Amino acid sequence: MSSIELGAVVVDAVRGAGVTDVVLAPGSRSAALALAADRADRAGELRLHVRIDERVAGFTALGLAKASGRPVAVITTSGTAVANLGPAAMEATAAGVPLLLITADRPEYLVGTGANQCGDQAGAFGPAALAVVRLSSESGGAAAWAAGVQRALAVAAGARTRQPGAVQLNIEFAEPLVGELPPSRKIAFEVAESAGHRVAELDARRTVVLVGDATPESGAEARALAEVSGAPLLAEPSSNARSGANAVADYRLRLADLGGRIQRVIVFGHPTLSRPVSRLLARDDVELVVVTDRATWPDPGHRATLVADRVLLADQDPSWLGEWTPFDAGVRSAHGPAQGATITQETVAAAVLAALGPGDDLVLGASSIIRAADLAPIAERPPRVFANRGLAGIDGTVATATGIALATGRPTTALLGDLTAQHDLGALVRPPSEPWPRLRVVVADDGGGSIFHGLEQGAPEYEASFERVFGTPQAVDLAAVASALGWRAVRVSGEAQLGAALSGDAEFIVVSLSRGRA
Ligand SMILES: Cc1ncc(C[n+]2csc(CCOP(=O)(O)OP(=O)(O)O)c2C)c(N)n1
Ligand SMILES: [Mg+2]
Fold first, then answer.
1. Is 22 helix (H, G, I), strand (E, B) or coil?
2. Mind listing the pLDDT tens digit for each residue in 217-232?
């Protein structure tokens, strides 16, 4: 038993269980894993991606897993490196994205002794890790190590539990940390998924299909249900359902007048974006049905009466959909990209969406921009859309987009706010040794955090404190920062310039906006 053997077995078991992508941040304690992963990459057995910053590595892995639907492993050395995976771990578990956090460690008898780079790190993710599996080069052996990896991956994938998320695989490596790698071998392993098949049949009462953040598959299912039954489709921008004749562009505004007519809501995905929707989901006079293939389901209003894998909905009275469409048509043009003279978050979102088609992927940052996209016109041929809505962080957005683009190989655009972009500047560093995907970043730059203007703290009585502690004004020249890091960057103001930049070859587009009180 040796550390180098352990590293080889772990990598063999990881790829044998179906993992195709591994992200690594360098270090010494993890050397055996790094050498084995590099060998597997050279042999074409998996793809290795190397990032310096573990937070970036974690979100890159998250993006890869989100877009591929397969578990992705991310490897770190011991010490503070581990904790930098925390944000991605929290998002992965909240959003149900399978992630294996492989954290190299020192032998446990060194914990608390002051040994270099040695903290108490097994379990460091708390409830963000669905399980903690521990291995050591000093105990077990190849079969036990492989079995540990397989169990960790099965939990991460949610294969038996239907609840994917992050799992920590903490591995103690005793010295010597390197040596000659044993021959690689495929350790094939599969856990069959346990899926439920209950199909619930629902009567014809006035229903809306509400779709929050959802995978392309789940979004397509929701859209099909609305279209087959003739129900209005209220689809958030990362629902992958926001298209077709039943989608209501301005549903968020329409809920004020039509909400009271709704008798049933069928929820797909994870709705998070607006208060009118939260209020709808908390109403006690509306039947709430949640469709999910997961073990848990969203129901923040505590009102769900049925949770099912699939539903069949009886045909809706055609006048019901008719109630939702006429006003919508007017708003479609009012919010269209070619109207109005002032450029706003809404016109930026609409212009970016209009520039993309079904061959593209779009990653939306949190805060105002995704809510602006929630009012964009309904596109007939929209891009696929992703967003980190598990916990709606403004961190890791560029790295997540990088991972998504690496997983799909499709041209990918990340659209995000200026503070969200600043938060992930580390992800703009493109290591020269690493393959880089087709990723374009568009920043809606209003010089700070505008979302807070519309929230409680935006009220006049907090004005004296507002800018410093909420608005956090910033004047960083993000285009200059990006160009210093090697990106083809431009700053634009006005819709015409934005349109030209979107159809050109710019990789980093900063759109100047004003940040007024909403
Ligand atoms: C990691 C993290 N920290 C803090 C927040 C709270 N937060 C939400 S939006 C926001 C400001 C975002 O500003 P920006 O990206 O410029 O978007 P804007 O609202 O201005 O469009 C902050 C700090 C968060 N969601 N995630
Ligand atoms: Mg901003």
1. strand
2. 999 999 999 999 999 9
User: What percent of the residues of the chain are helix, what percent strand, and what percent coil, each to the nearest 5?
Assistant: 40, 20, 45
From residue 181, give the alpha-carbon distance in Å to each of 9, 29, 170, 178, 419. 10, 16, 20, 8, 45
The structure tokens listed for 301 are 């209003």
pLDDT at 186: 87
CB 470, CB 367: distance < 8 Å: no
Closest CA to 433 of 26, 94, 11: 26
Q: In whole angstroms, what is the distance from residue 417 CA to residue 367 CA?
A: 7
Q: State in Å: Cα 245 to ligand 1 middle.
A: 33
pLDDT at 518 over 90: no
Q: Are strands 47-50 and 21-24 parallel, antiparallel or unpaired?
A: parallel
3 state SS of 74 = strand
Compute the distance from residue 395 Cα to the ligand 2 centre, in Å: 14
Pocket test for ligand 1, best of 371, 389, 419, 441 (most atoms within 8 A of CB): 419
pLDDT digits (tens, 9 = 90+) for 436-485: 999 999 999 999 999 999 899 999 999 999 999 999 999 999 999 999 99
Tell me the residue type at 434.
E
Closest atom of ligand 1 relative to the 452 alpha carbon? 19
Compute the Cα dihedral for 480, 482, 484, 489 and give only its sign: negative
pLDDT at 73: 98
Name every protein residue with a CB atom under 6 angstroms from any ligand 1 atom: 366-369, 392-395, 417-420, 444, 446, 449-451
CA 491 to chain centre: 27
| Whole-number Cα distances in Å, 28 to 50, 75, 92, 176, 424 | 14, 12, 26, 11, 25
- CB-neighbour burial class of residue 74 (10 A; exposed 0-12, middle 13-18, buried 19+): buried
Please state whether the predicted TM-score (pTM) of the whole model is above 0.85: yes
Identify the residue whose C-alpha is closest to ligand 1 atom 11: 449
Is the four-CA dihedral 375, 380, 385, 389 of positive or negative sign? positive
At residue 68, does pLDDT exceed 50? yes
**How many residues make up the chain in this entry?**
518
H helix runs in 335-429, sequence order: 345-354, 368-373, 397-408, 418-423
Pairwise CA distance, residues 214 & 224, whole Å: 14
Whole-number Å distance between alpha carbons of 272 and 256: 18
